[in-house]
Amino acid sequence: MRIMIVTANKNETAAVLNCKSFKCSVKRSQDKNDPNYYNVGKWATYDILHFELLSQGFNGADSAPLSIVSAINYFKPAAVILVGIAFGRDNSDTENRSQNIGDVLVSEKVSDYESGKVAKGQFMPDGAIPESGRQLIAAFKHYSRSWEHKINGRKANCEFGMLLSGDKVVDEKKFKEELIKAYPRAIGGEMEGRGAYAACRNRNINEWILIKGICDWADGTKGKNKDINQKIAAESAVSLLDHILSDPLSLSKLDTSVSSHQDGDSSNNVNNHNIETKQVVGFFVNFGITSCRLFEVYNDKKTLKEIKVITYDISNPQNPKYLDNIIKHVINEILPTIKEREQLFIKAFADSVFLDIFPSERKRNEFIMRFYTETRLFFNIVSEKQTEENLKKRFGNIGSSTAIVNIGSQYVDILVKKNKKFKMYNVAISLRDITEYVERHAIAEVWSIQNISDIKDSIKKLLKERAEKALESIKVKDAIIIKNELTFMDENGYRLVFNDGRKCIPFDDYKKDNHDLLFSVDYHKALEEKFPSDKSKISRYYGFKKGHILLEAIFDYIGVETIVPTDELSIHGSINAYIFNVVISGSTNGNHAEYMIEADKIMREMGATVLSPKIIGGRLSPKTRETDIEHACAIRECDLLFVSNKDGYIGEQTSHEIYGAFLLNKPIAFWKEPDEQFDRLKFIPHEQWWNLMKTLEEN
């Protein structure tokens, strides 16, 4: 049975690795940019994977949810156990205190204390309070009765109940008292639990639990004997874990059929990800140097569907009419497509290479203003840093030897990092070219070795004719492929192997599996037998046969050694693409404070970090001169200014912040479109998020 153990700092990790029952070997990533270590081995009879989180808390590129999801995909455990340290509830100095340093807290529930609202002067928590796994709770309760662990002669206790979880390092007596007042049944708190729950829920794992030793009281004395107390607490928690894992029957009732719950019914999410059942909530327009693309955005917050590709009449940025031509295409071809649904969320972003097109910042700003005036779209040029962070969030670190390859409706996109900058190659090749070649040469459904060679040669010829000459000099080691390729290859028996926390396949094995599973068989007939009454599904799956012969030829062309399949549906992501650091602007009086807190919750659930205002214990931090200065500085640093005008109200200070963000070239999004009395703001380029916010609230 596979159990995954997660720690979050060096003392927690040391306690696990120093336990004599855990025999493991260290697997280090081959990617020089990836610092992760996986400790894989045996703990008594159990198969164990242990790893230490790269960062604590819920948000960020290396956040707990993302790291744990990656580890789950790698190991496919039956249960996830977070073991380590926490703060305790009872810091009284009496002899009858109920808790002591080194006592162990076990989660029956985990409460997200970051979420809530303020009404009538009272903080009203509304965050999720999920229950830990029933089988794990039962096992720990049973075995805790026979557990003995002494700390300086005192027997450690084990307490079950609700653990608080949030992003803050709590070490302030008043704040802690407010937390306990809001959550009177809490027995302590920590930072990783809510992320673990989110990750396990994402991967359909019901059995998860937190085992945390008390190391401090979060009352301002955390620094006193900090290292010693953390070691005592971590060793105590690991002692309880060791006591349970030492019995081969302790977790025998856990569901070991883990392969079925990792990806759900993959037949429903291959290729178009069952798009017909989803609701369109908006559009993305992505501007490249030679073309732009229009995507529909769906309400699952992750699906994009490319619905239009427009190749510019003028593709040379040095042409004086180049930018005018882009505006013309938007007016004539993009806006008519979305006109009937213009109340939906619409986001336009341009590749970072556009930063080099304009001779000065003033010229760039003048174009952004003109673009907005004529199209009512904000031409958001993403920076190199934003591009890298966005890719890291989805695919991990991207080195100079890695390419991300996407087959679109009219183009193949090949994104590589060259000279520390990302370069997108858009090659005008599609599955239609494969279909036309096969039909023109009357190639049968079962392809011979010669057929395969001829098709690949025709693709390479098109690459030379249609791709930039610079692509010939690109040589990459790893190719990441998207659009449910991981589910497809897993389901069809490709010889995927684990490496650096992800599944991959050497190129030679990939070619052989393509031959045996797709090319040299009657794949269409096999699909008809598998889906006898679903022509749509047959068509979607059959696209993989053409897609993989196309990919195989491209990989030959650019020298790929290893293929890394993923289930990501877009290189860019979806609703939260290029949004990392947000400042929320709005009134803090009356109900407006609740709107600010609600907006904070939604932004964080999108994966963004809210730089300002700070929310402590479910309340906005008090407004002072210092917080005003911090708020102004945060606007300079943010990726987006979100205006929290849910009821339409925009005050004078909020107006000033909007003007400031505009002058700093920051994207601005309104919760609700400003009405007539705020015409003075309507000239400012912005995004309208009303429909999107309604969708996010509903979700």
How many strand segments?
32
Mean pLDDT: 83
The main sheet comes to: 7 strands, mixed
Shape: globular
How are strands sequenced across the largest beta sheet? Answer: 21-20-19-22-25-24-23
Portion in beta strands: 15-25%
- Termini gap: 34 Å
**What's the gyration radius in Å?**
27 Å
Describe this structure in words.
It is built from 19 helices and 32 strands. Strand 28 and strand 29 form a beta hairpin. It is globular, with a radius of gyration of 27 Å. The strands form 7 sheets. Strands 21-20-19-22-25-24-23 form a 7-stranded mixed beta sheet, with helices on both faces. The protein has 699 residues and is an alpha/beta fold. The two termini are 34 Å apart. Helix 2 crosses helix 5, helix 11 packs across helix 15 and helix 14 packs antiparallel against helix 15. About 3% of the residues have low confidence. The longest helix has 24 residues. It is 35% helix and 24% strand.
Briefly summarize what is shown:
The chain has 699 residues and is of the alpha/beta class. The chain has 19 helices and 32 strands.
SSE diagram, text form:
Elements (H helix, E strand, L loop, with lengths): L1 E6 L2 H8 L4 E7 L8 E7 L2 E7 L11 H12 L3 E10 L15 E9 L3 E4 L2 E4 L8 H11 L5 E2 L2 E2 L2 E8 L7 H10 L3 E5 L2 H10 L5 E9 L9 H20 L34 E8 L3 E8 L5 E8 L10 H17 L6 E6 L10 H15 L4 E2 L2 H12 L6 E6 L4 E7 L2 E7 L3 H10 L8 H18 L11 E4 L3 H7 L5 E3 L2 E5 H13 L3 H8 L4 H24 L3 E4 L15 E5 L5 H15 L3 E4 L2 E2 L2 E2 L4 H13 L2 E4 L8 H12 L4 E3 L16 E2 L1 H9 L1
Parallel strand pairs: 1-4, 1-5, 5-13, 6-11, 11-12, 14-17, 17-18, 19-22, 22-25, 26-27, 26-30, 30-31, 31-32
Antiparallel strand pairs: 2-3, 3-4, 5-12, 6-13, 7-8, 9-10, 14-15, 15-16, 19-20, 20-21, 23-24, 24-25, 28-29
